[in-house]
## 1
Amino acid sequence: MSISSKLIPVVLLSASFALVPGAARAQQPARALEEAGGDALGRLCFQCHRASMWSDLRLDRRGWEGVLYRMVGRGALWNEDEIKAMAAYLASSAGPPTGKPAK
Amino acid sequence: MRELVAQYLSRSISRRTFLKGLTATGISIAAAESILDSLAPAAQAQEARTAAEGIKVFEGTGGACFAEQLMASGVKYVFGNSASEDAQFYEALVDRPKLKYILTPHEGPGAAMAAGYVKASGEPAIVMQAAVVGLMNAMGQMFNAFKEQTPLVFYSYRTDQSGRAGRDGFEEVENQEQIVAPMTKYSWLARRPDKIPETVRRAFKAAWTPPYGPTYCSWHSDYNDEKTRAEIIVQEKVDPRMRVRPNPAEVERAAKLLVEARMPLMNVGDEVYNRKAIGKAVRLAELLGMPVTQARQVFVSFPQTHRLWVGGPPGNRLATLAFPKEPDVVINVGNKLQHNSPAPIVSRNVKFIDMRIDSASMGNVMTTEVPLVADVALGLDDLIAAIEAVMTPSIRQRAAARAQEVQRFTDHAKALKALVAKNPDWDASPMLADRVTWEIARFADADAIVVHEGGSIGLHSFGFDPLGGRELFNYYGAHLGSGVGTAAGVKLARPNRQVICLVGDGSFVFGPTALWNMARLELPVITVVYNNHAYSGPHSRVVEKVAGGRMVQTGHFIHDYLGNPDMNMAYIARGFGVDAEVVESADQLKAALTRARRATVEGKPYLLDVQVGRYGVAWADKPWTPPISVARERTKKV
């Protein structure tokens, strides 16, 4: 499966995450959670999906958690920390337009 | 009377039916009994000859010959839709009560019902349609049978009689039998009435010789009416008994590869289920401490509750398994391997052992280190024996350590799978499809059979175990409309098991007519329709292909919304004589399932139309529908 152009930011983000020193990460827990989520997303989702399947989706964190838990129902084996981190990352990078409802 | 005598001597009718037939012609009961006595020596001689040879010569109409050969081929049930040119066949059934005709109101669900019966019983059946017009309706399920490798025999006559064929007559198409050629193992047009039994016999022989698959037979309609004389031969006499053992040299090579492997992985499939070799697959896995998976198939062929079961690959390639990430040897036992992406299911960098009876498809996609062409039940016996012969204490120790490693994963995976219930929308109404599945899994009997035809429904929480626990009949060929019919056929074959049909609304409306068969035949199946009033799969795939396109920008999806007006599946069910209700929340579902159980205990089918939510990109609460209406064009109120 080819990596689509929409995946590239995620991969780059994951790579940059690996270069950030641990101490700096600890100072920014929210940012660290999102970055860990980006890493998990690249590692866990793209073995089955292309990014284009969900790149038009705009959801808040709770909405993205719903999406990810539905993947558990289809066989994805993720722990709660991974799901939280991926939802945080997705809500940050693909959140709802300001002032609009989450769905 | 001559016909009756012939039928009696050929054991086509019983003594009682013979006597009844004679008295119906005006002969007194005393005279009839006298005739019966006079036939005794001939009957005994005929019986002795038939028992010894399995062959008898039968005289009668082509339709009666057809019925005779069906019985000799082991058929109990005929699934058919009314066909006027089969009159002599119907006539023959009146005095042949062993051959039961099930009238199905549409050929598609009728064929699905027959396929469900064949899959669940392991016994032969035939599907009949009216000429090419009926055949066309059945061909969708013929395609499914071809993809699934189900040994189902189809028949339809040519409406054109032999004396007027080739004139573009009513219901005539040239080369009717060739229409089905690409998806049958055998298709043939009998050229004479006396060739009907031979054609039927060959159709059953071809269908039931592994690898299984559908077959088709046909003849001109006037052959059904003509009197003829033909041999009727029992299936046993023509069955080539394809119980093939694998090449012993290859078995030794496979055994060596497996015992020396760092992390072997077994992929199982339908041949294991069909050959009742699940226990043997378990034995092989346990011997080696080998993890087991299964790429998409019809049946579950390994207990999902077993400590060595690592789950199915979520992306249908073994590389998408969470564990083991790097197997060095993969053995496939009986899986057809449906490759749905350019990358093969088994990656090129592992040593691959392929054990199957379907030699024609081996090596087409996968490079194969060790091919084991075999009946998998015999193949597993030989492989287990070969491995046991080379097992040493150190190999056993390594296998035990590997089994522990696999179990650490499976214990962890079990906990992760349970997280499905943490979904923040768990209590939503309309319901999450996952919640519906979870509630049904809690409700289902420990040995329930689940028939599944819902492309957007994840099948978690059931813990299928074909060794005495729950079983799955999954849709595989994907010609929609098979679920309800399949469930009816499964229940017909296994009346003492709870049968639950899970079906999406889109699939359901392709084939609800089998509900009528459930009501008429008292087949107490629980049908659950996951009704989101939409085609979810096509919606998601379209969005994936045209991400950010005009459809997403405008919300104008022309192809996927089935609401406005919403379909009420409970009304549809009641129209076929099946009690039903609409369910909108988890609490309602629990209560409705209790009512469904009560109905089935009393022998009645029941349907739940469960309202589930639409999730995914760009679904609106009230989706747009194309503005096509004739209302404004009407100028007359007619």
## 2
Amino acid sequence: MRDGITVQNLSHSWDHFSLRNINLSVAEGSYFVLLGPTGSGKTLLLEAIAGAYRPNEGRVIVTGEDVSALPPEKRGISYAPQNYLLFDNMTVRKNVEFGLHAKGIPEQERWNRAKHLLDLLGISHLVNRFPRNLSGGEKQRVSLARALAVEPRAVLLDEPLSAVDTETKSSILDYLRRVHKETGVTVIHVTHDQLEAASVAERIGVMRNGEMVEVGAPAEFAESSSSEVGSVFRSDNLLAGNVIGKDAGLALVDIGGGKIIEAVTDRTGQVMLHIRPEEVVVSKHAVDTSARNRLSGTVAEITDLGPTVRLRISGVRRIMAIITRRSFFEMQLNIGSEVYVFFKTTSVEVL
Amino acid sequence: MRLSPGFPVRFVFVLSALSGILFFLLVSPVLSLIGTSSLSGLLLAISNTEAISAIALTIYTSGLTALVAVLLGVPLGYLLGKYRFPGRSLIDSIIEIPLMIPHTVAGIALITIFGSAEFVGGIFKGYGIRMTNNVLGIVLTLVFVSATYTVKQVEEAIKSMDPKLELVSRSLGASSTFTFIRVTLPNIWRSVVTGAILTWARASSEAAALFIMAYYPTVASVLIWNLYAGYGLHESISNGVVLSPGSVNVAALMIIVNLAIFVLFKLVQRKREK
């Protein structure tokens, strides 16, 4: 697969911050997430790719063409900023058609292209509204439609979910997956939220202090227990799986090693499962409980968190559990103890 | 009316008293002027061709000045607001100079370059274009004393605009020019209009610099001075011949016309904002 966006040895210095020797390659048509804490340089990297400034060193290559010296309008990369920045003086329709208008595309064709995206994103009913009358989620979808309407070579999404409520978040994530699947556009999505990253990414690049620390698939991060990078996911439970069927309305998710986890979801294919360590029950015995999911393993690591204790349990998959200090002593757990872990179907969050 | 428990009665009383003094200073001369002029005096001013043509010339030249200030001031305000470049703060200070110098000094400064024996004035004279004592001279003078307001308004508006707004537009394939016209201007137009109104108001009030650069043709402020110096406040009529329609009457008429234009502008602006 050829590269959609390649960043080579990119460095740039400001007064108090620098991006240092960043290398990145995003396959054409793939969904890449830049993950890192606030101030790690994610947005600055995105702006370098968009062409907001010319980096001191390095190159940006888009589908084989070196665009380092090109202005933003010649790069074919749509930028969707964190605060949407819709054009307040234009209706939703004019916003979405903006790029096509700039390119001199006739009105009828503009509308045909815009209509398709408006339908896809479920915002057709908003065409005549002005941005000031839209909710955060609606603005985000308009911003997305506006970015996609010009059929760009790539779309840059800066913290697309930072300003919407939790419920809207999951619906926007669904839209992002759907739009990506439908259009096949290359996406670079910036976020500080690891679950958001695990939820949509095909690959994740982790940034810290202006450097790209590591790049990999979400499942690789979730499984890693030693690498520096794994630490973003290390204290949590993220399991990559595959929905293989349905039983009594519940999805059966194969997580490898012959283990099936039940979860509540309508999703199919590849999914990421998230189970909060606090919701994992640990027992030394294979007791019967109402929890539908049971795995087994050995205690590999014990971390004292004060009133609670975090256990890393190695089995078919690595599971993190947080139990009270009292339970920990009453169960007489040690490194190497054989244990069973349980969690309820409803505790499994499908990202 | 019930005051909330946190309302600082004495503090607000002192502030109100001080504000009252200033308000009196600002409003009383204007009201008194209109009061001093009589309806018959106003009618006399309206029927006086010299007064009417001076007021019309003032409206025309200050309007032209506002137009020039927008055409040339928006680009300068944009550059100053958008980019950081060597000499930026110097330029920023220089454009404020016209606001700081006495208006007679402004007039003398202008004549030293645009006078027909001077550098630029001399060049234009070679092409048969005079830069003093005509509409061009008036507008040059008014632009000098008032364009800064437009530049400053635009500069501040650009500074407060999210720079990523233009990046979004350009990333969608829009050129810098398309972006400026379709995205930037609609975003700052309120400031452009405010700047233009300030420039227009300042321009229509100028007199001193015009005495030096363009005494003729006579604008309202110059005429009012002439009438006052020659005949005092009130109308002067001798054997049925109007020697002076009265400086106070022409001044009152000028204020009424200017206020009317200002209110009209505000109404149009408010309607467009809705």
